[in-house]
């Protein structure tokens, strides 16, 4: 396992559309393990492969008091409702912003062993999944801000960093 450097806002890898994973090789599983370790070290609720410089459709998520998990080639198949959330991104440290996210999402993908999984999510889980899947499409939460004044500088993160 290894801690990987987290790519910051401005790095072009964060703006690319990530490639689908075709084979879940040992190196893909190693990347997942490293992403989980990196996410935990950064106290993140989620991490997407482009954030560690890999343009691949892989995300990891960990909610408080729950086991971390990975989702390969994740896709949102349904979303509904809208709510205002405070959000931050590990690639954009020191800031947070208020944006709109879905109330409920259903997403599907593969786990680290290639087994198909489907997740129905609300609250922080839905927020984290939407944020990480956006990363795979080169979308960052700051893109949703109505204006720059909605971006707030903060010292200690007490909001989801994803
Ligand atoms: Ni992020």
Q: What share of residues is helical?
A: 10-25%
Give the CA-CA distance, first to last residue. 20 Å
Q: CATH superfamily, called what?
A: Peptide deformylase
Portion in strands: 25-35%
Determine the structural class based on helices, strands and strand pairing: alpha+beta
What is the level 1 CATH name? Alpha Beta
Radius of gyration: 15 Å
Overall 3D form:
globular
- Remind me, CATH topology? Peptide Deformylase
Bound molecules: nickel (II) ion
* Order of H and E elements: HEEEEEEEHE
Major beta sheet summary: 5 strands, antiparallel
Total tally of structural domains? 1
* pLDDT averaged residue by residue: 94
Question: What's the number of extended β-strand segments?
Answer: 8
Q: Which residue ranges are poorly predicted, with pLDDT under 50 across at least 5 consecutive positions?
A: none
User: So, CATH architecture?
Assistant: Alpha-Beta Complex
Kindly report the spatial arrangement of strands forming the biggest sheet. Answer: 1-2-3-6-7
Quick recap:
With 162 residues, the protein is α+β, with helices and mostly antiparallel strands. Helix content is 19%, strand content 30%.
Spell out the blueprint of helices and strands.
Layout: H1 26-41, E1 46-48, E2 58-61, E3 69-80, E4 83-87, E5 95-101, E6 104-110, E7 116-122, H2 123-136, E8 151-153
Antiparallel strand pairs: 1-2, 2-3, 3-6, 4-5, 5-8, 6-7
Bound molecules: nickel (II) ion (NI).
Nickel (II) ion is lined by residues 89-91, 131, 135, 162.
């Amino acid at each position: 396992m290894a801690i990987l450097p987290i790519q910051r806002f401005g790095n072009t890898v964060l703006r690319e559309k990530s490639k689908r994973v075709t084979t879940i090789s040992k190196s893909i599983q190693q990347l997942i393990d490293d992403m989980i370790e990196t996410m935990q070290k950064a106290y993140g609720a989620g991490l997407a492969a482009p954030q560690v410089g890999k343009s691949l459709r892989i995300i990891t998520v960990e909610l408080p008091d729950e086991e971390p998990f990975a989702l390969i080639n994740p896709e949102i198949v349904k979303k509904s409702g809208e709510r205002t959330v405070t959000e931050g991104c590990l690639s954009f440290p020191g800031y947070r912003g208020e944006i709109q996210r879905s109330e409920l999402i259903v997403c599907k993908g593969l786990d680290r062993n290639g087994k198909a999984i489907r997740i129905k999510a609300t609250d922080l889980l839905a927020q984290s999944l939407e944020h990480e899947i956006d990363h795979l499409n080169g979308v960052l939460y700051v893109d949703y801000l109505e204006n720059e004044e909605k971006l707030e500088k903060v010292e200690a993160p007490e909001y989801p960093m994803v």
